[in-house]
Amino acid sequence: MIEFQQVHKTYRVAGRDVPALQPTDLRIAAGEVFGLIGHSGAGKSTLLRLINRLEEPSGGRILVDGEDVTALDADGLRRFRQRVGMIFQHFNLLMSKTVADNVAMPLRLAGQLSRGEIDARVARLLDRVGLRDHARKYPAQLSGGQKQRVGIARALATEPGILLCDEATSALDPQTTASVLQLLAEINRELRLTIVLITHEMDVIRRVCDRVAVMDGGAIVEQGPVTEVFLHPKHPTTQRFVLEDEALDEGEMHEDFAHVPGRILRLTFQGEGTYQPLLGTVARETGVDFSILSGRIDRIKDTPYGQLTLALTGGDLEAALARFDRADVHVEVLR
Amino acid sequence: MDALFGSLFANVDWYEIWLATLDTLLMLGGSLLFTILLGLPLGVLLFLSGPRQLFENRPLYAALAFVVNVLRSLPFIILLIVMIPFTVLLTGTSLGVAGAIPPLVVGAAPFFARLVETALREVDRGIIEATQAMGATTRQIIFSALLPEARPGIIAAITVTAITLVSYTAMAGVVGAGGLGDLAIRFGYQRFQTDVMVVTVVLLLVLVQLLQSAGDRLVTHFSRK
To answer: Which domains does chain A have, with CATH numbers?
Structure first.
């Protein structure tokens, strides 16, 4: 478990203190995929780098599995870092070393395994990320997605308990992003590895994260399970991220529906309920008519969800609302 | 043909040329070796202590930069003469190959150190960060990441420095260092033996060309981009 206790960070720029992270409390459970989302300058990158002290905190304590990381001396910090993997937006592979040598590097630096053991582990890791045939190539000969796979293999070399991902998919195209995220999800499941990732894309959060914290202005403004934060965003920043992801504009939508008669509702389903034939049942039982104005049925990580905007006319509206409520569907009356 | 060749290069003593070439190569090799041994650590230190680097240390960087700049702003011909007492102290003579090497090294090492600093700055900061994140010691960051990544740049720096040293060795001829430059001055210039001048110039040109193409090959070999 990673625990932040009143951790804050201030940079000194040109003689002035610039706050990068407000005093923050945060708990990240062992084995979960925790996402930090925010625009650039929101403080997410600082927060991530505080975990392995690539950034030194200005105050507060960071506990990892009960150990106070902020109190470690140089030697202790090096040993701690060997138990924390990290991958980067621009991969940060050594151009002068082959793929296999890049993956072996953390093991050689740690100096605990024999050459044979290192070779065996490197082969296994390259196999795991699907790059067995590329061991002797140099990073410049690989595509972006392959480079990030090398980065992941390298980060996993010392069998760390935590993996930090710094915008790991931001430099990749959508298809490659999907495959790299899938690999991260698999690793999280197989190795019971805690993953902390930062991103500015809601889609990345939706695909792999269990919980998410939304950052703005150097502070966490909202956090919780992804389904909760994503489907019922409360803070304006979160709402903006969700709308960006859905690529629709709330105001525009209201104008479009101005001429539609009846009450306009937004229903949010999640879990198995998503696949129940609820709308037809409610229509038959209460006599309401519905037309679907917009909607989306998708998954958040492993949880199916649906979000539909409906116009209801006729019948017994109150009974319909009560029926939705009984079926555990979240209803928002938009008009 | 032989007669033509003989009359064209009437003043050229080929054995003398051979000895001078050997002297030039010895001066070049010796001074290059010590320039690298001195300049590489100095360049690494300049880089590490520089602004926003791993071991930012303003006073140290300012001091190093000052010494480097002073030595680099001295014209080499002046340095040769200023260095004489020090050279005698170090090698027992200010003449010949041994007497030429200390001023050559003092002239070239600061220049080389700056080139090394520049080559190290070309290394992506992210690579240093990634190496830090692996739990590397400072020594490991330098030897396992920085220097291997900067290798093509450092080889290019060695090439440029070697070529600069070739022209410095020629100047060292003025203060009795021997070598092709000495030959060119004593015979080609002072005795108006144009043929000797032409031969020495051609030999120096060939030497520079060989150094440059060897350097370029090595850079290409070690560039994985």
So the answer is: 2-244 (3.40.50.300), 250-333 (3.30.70.260)
Single-letter amino acid code for the residue at A17:
D
CB contact under 8 A, B129 and A109: no
How is residue A53 written in tokens? 């002290």
Q: Would you say residue B8 lies in a domain?
A: no
A140/B222 CB distance under 8 A: no
SS in 3 state form for chain B?
CHHHHHHHCCCCCHHHHHHHHHHHHHHHHHHHHHHHHHHHHHHHHHHHHCCCCCCCCHHHHHHHHHHHHHHHHCCHHHHHHHCHHHHHHHHCCCCHHHHHHHHHHHHHHHHHHHHHHHHHHCCCHHHHHHHHHCCCCHHHHHHHHHHHHHHHHHHHHHHHHHHHHHHHHHHHHHHCCCCHHHHHHHHHHCCCCHHHHHHHHHHHHHHHHHHHHHHHHHHHHHCCC
Distances (CA, A) of A47 to A31, A39, A302, B99, B132: 19, 13, 27, 59, 17
In a domain, B9, yes or no: no
Determine, for residues A106 and B129 on separate chains, whether the beta-carbon distance falls below 8 Å.
no
The alpha carbon of residue A145 is apart from the nearest alpha carbon of chain B, in Å, by: 17
Q: What is the pLDDT of residues B134-182, one digit of tens each?
A: 999 999 999 999 999 999 999 999 999 999 999 898 888 777 777 888 8
Q: Encoding tokens for residue B72?
A: 């680099």
Radius of gyration of chain A from its Cα atoms, rounded to whole angstroms:
24
Which range marks the domain in which residue B179 is found? 14-222
pLDDT digits (tens, 9 = 90+) for B60-85: 999 999 999 999 888 988 888 888 88
Please report, for the domain that includes residue B122, its CATH number.
1.10.3720.10
* Nearest to A129, CA basis, from A114, A143, A113, A147: A147
Q: What is the mean pLDDT of each run of 10 residues along chain A (335 residues)?
A: 94 86 95 94 93 94 94 95 96 96 96 95 96 95 95 96 95 93 94 95 92 95 93 91 71 72 87 83 88 85 86 86 87 84
**Interface with A, mutate which of B134, B138, B144, B224 (most A CBs under 10 A):** B134
Report the C-alpha gap between B203 and B209 in whole angstroms: 10
| CB contact (8 A) between residue B134 and residue A81 | yes
